[in-house]
Amino acid sequence: MTGQLSRVETMQGRWMAFLLALGGLGLWEISSRLGLISDLFFPAPSSIIRMMIDLVFSGVLLEHLAATCGRLFLGLIMGVLPATVLGLIMGWSSRVRAALDPFVAALHPVPKIAILPLIMVIFGIGETSRLVVIAIAGFFPMLINTMVGVMQISPSLFEVAANFGARPVQIFRRVVIPGSLPMGVSGFRLAFNNALIISVAIELVTARRGLGALIWLAWETFRIEQLYAGLVMIALLGIGFNALLKRLSIYLIPWQENIIT
């Protein structure tokens, strides 16, 4: 009964968000058409949609989207996989955590875009440097959330597993990994969002292809509708990924299906 009520409230919240967004877009459209706001800087949403359609059919938007997605997901994999393994180990072993936590505390607050020049000095000017920075951006949220996910597992679960004669490998596979999944999924969501932000920021500065490069080109040529089209595409990419992750979490952690709302 509680689960059904929660789902109803979630659907009501989503419909409310949809109606608010629709109302805001309608108000924007009317204000732009009536000249209440400058259509030079705030073009009507219908104009932005037409620009997006033109960019899709011309292949320009899909080309930049493919470049961003390829760069984003490859960098994300490079950062998330080692972060997950290290986070599980740090959460399980207090000695490893005590040894590595000061380095995490020191490096995590550093703005990842600020280390791009250093990465470019080491790896050169090219795709490798971009991927490394994106990987670093996704590394720390995944590491910290996975570590905390292991640390918050009840000690009684480890005791029960040990009493039944479970070996360390079995405890790691049957207790540590499942117990850390909820926080791990949340960490993956944060890692994706961080990586997306850094991907677009890097493309603004160094890339010729990608949604960030499309936005920068639109700014240089003062094509405001194209600029907004790039921003909308980034928003849609984030919404689509989070919806996919929500669906995936239902199968991975069915006992906490509302971990991502």
Account of the protein in words:
- The chain is mainly α.
- It folds into two domains: about 1-40; about 45-255, MetI-like (MetI-like fold, Orthogonal Bundle).
- The protein contains ten helices and no strands.
- The protein has helices spanning about 1-35, 45-60, 60-90, 95-105, 115-125, 125-150, 155-165, 170-205, 210-220, 225-250.
- α3 (about 60-90) packs antiparallel against α8, α8 packs parallel to α9 (about 210-220) and α8 packs antiparallel against α10.
- The chain is globular and about 75 Å long.
Summed up:
The protein is an all-alpha fold and 261 residues long.
Features:
single chain; 261 residues; MetI-like fold
Gyration radius (Cα, Å) is 22 Å
Under the CATH scheme, the architecture of the largest domain is Orthogonal Bundle
Overall spatial form: globular
pLDDT average, as an integer?
86
Structural class: mainly alpha
Termini separation: 19 Å
Low-confidence stretches at least 5 residues in length (pLDDT < 50)? none
Strand content: under 5%
- Mind summarizing the main beta sheet? none
Tally of strands: 0
Write the H/E string, N to C: HHHHHHHHHH
CATH homologous superfamily title of the largest domain: MetI-like
With helices defined by DSSP (H or I, 4 residues minimum), what is the helix count? Answer: 10
- The first-level CATH class name of the largest domain: Mainly Alpha
